[in-house]
Amino acid sequence: MAFVSKLPSISSSSSSVTQLRKPNSFNTHPFNSIHCASCSSTSPFTEKHSIRRYERDNWIYKNQLDQSSYCPLPPDSNSVRDYDIALQLPELKKLLQVLREKRESGGPGAGDGGRGPGNVFLVGTGPGDPELLTVKAMRVIQNADLLLYDRLVSDDVLNLVGDDAKLLYVGKTAGYHSRTQEEIHELLLNFAEAGATVVRLKGGDPLVFGRGGEEMDFLQQQGIQVKVIPGITAASGIAAELGIPLTHRGVANSVRFLTGHSRKGGSDPLFVAANAADPDSTLVVYMGLSTLPSLVLKLIHHGLAPDTPAAAVERGTTPQQHVVLAELKDLAEKITSAQLVSPTLIIIGKVVALSPLWPYSSKERSILVEAK
């Protein structure tokens, strides 16, 4: 097993692993210091109690922050959500009214001559590194009126948003949904109908475990045109960062993406283990930390070798990236020891041993390929 922080330099031996922090070429915006209960976080992603979230969304919380430098949060998740919505609702109504007035007057930001709905973009922001954004995504982000963003959109990406745009957090974590999916649908619809250019920011790719298809379907049924801007999904972005080819001639002839959690009432994602236990395929598991121990047992039970190479990557492509490399049978234990937290991506398959980070020599990796 190897435990790595950020991407080490490429070496023929795991014993010479070193740390490398990718320089950030994007300047962050200055902000005032405030004190917020349970706000501290080292994550580059937007957490529900992140102090960065409250500073970034200060168009909503401005009055409260002006009155006091302290912003206590309710103790339970339901209260937090109700508290957020209560604060946001007046400002959302004001913003909607401004947009409607612009649309009716035909002024700047009114859309097509003040007629018709605005544009909705579903934008993938990639696994976290802002330099992995597409040029089109950058342009849309910088010209939006309103951006609804998820928890897995990195802070560096949000720093690229235009100064006049409004940001609204609609992220979800286990036990805490700042907005229900139905409320997100209605927000997108209402602002689009008011003539706004609305951007829905999603980590990774919006159509890979991002529920982008649901939002697109809802809006299209209401007559709203939706444009999708793909992003680099975590599987390919993080695998590339680690030097893991998801497919490789003679080693893996296919790749399969699996979610560790299914919709309530849907099929247990672990039931696919019988078909996923393919030694000639690569398995990538999204959102699978809590179900990984059971998944590992099922994969081994259905024939996948216990010594199959595997990797778990927390906060991939960011300076806070942590990597655990281990054989499949040891992966869950090593993840627990390393104290990895969400978001963590899991890659299982012989291609993991082709990474320069895998604790075998280059010669041994060559033998693996030639054996096929």
TrEMBL record:
Organism of provenance: Escallonia rubra
Family recorded in the similarity comment: Belongs to the precorrin methyltransferase family.
Domain Tetrapyrrole methylase per the UniProt entry, residue ranges: 120-331
EC number: 2.1.1.107
Single GO MF descriptor: uroporphyrin-III C-methyltransferase activity
InterPro entries per the UniProt record, alphabetical: 4pyrrol_Mease, 4pyrrol_Methylase_sf, 4pyrrole_Mease_sub1, 4pyrrole_Mease_sub2, CobA/CysG_C, Siro_Cobalamin_biosynth, Uropor_MeTrfase_CS
Record-level GO BP terms: methylation; siroheme biosynthetic process
Magnesium as UniProt keyword: no
UniProt keyword list: Methyltransferase, Porphyrin biosynthesis, S-adenosyl-L-methionine, Transferase
Pfam families for the chain: TP_methylase
Name this polypeptide is given: uroporphyrinogen-III C-methyltransferase
UniProt keyword ATP-binding, yes or no: no
